[in-house]
Amino acid sequence: MDLLTPLTLVIGVLVLVAAFTVAARRLLDLRFGTIRTLLAGTFVLLIAGPLMKAFAGTVAPDDPGVTPIWFFILAVVCALLAGLVPLVIAEALIPSGSLPGPLELAGRLRRHLTRSRRYLRITRILVRHGLGPYLRGRDPDLGASSSRARLARSLREALDDGGVTFVKLGQILSTRSDLLPVEFVEELRLLQDSAASAPWTEIEPVLVAELGGPVEETFAGFDREPLAAASVAQVYRARLRTGEEVVVKVQRPGIATVVEQDLDIIDRLARSLERRTRWGRAFGVADLSRGFADALREELDFRIEAGNMAAVAAVSAGEPVHVPVPYPELSGRRVLVMEWLDGTPLGAAAPGGQDGQDGQELARTLLDTLLRQIMLHGVFHADPHPGNLMLLADGRLALLDFGSVGRLDGSLRDALGRLLGAMDRGDPLGVSDALLEVVPRPDEIDERGLERELGRFMARHLLAGTPPDVQMFGRLFRIVSSHGLSLPPEVAAVFRALATIEGTLARLAPGFDIVTEARAFSLRHLTERPDHQRVRDEVTREVLSLLPMVRRLPRRIERIADAAEHGRFSLNVRLFSDERDRRHVTGMLHQVLLTVLAATTGLMAALLLGADTGPRVTPGVGLHQLIGYNLLLVSAILGLRVLVVVFRGNR
Question: What are the TM regions of this chain, as residue ranges (predicted)?
Answer without folding.
Answer: 6-25, 37-56, 68-89, 592-611, 626-647
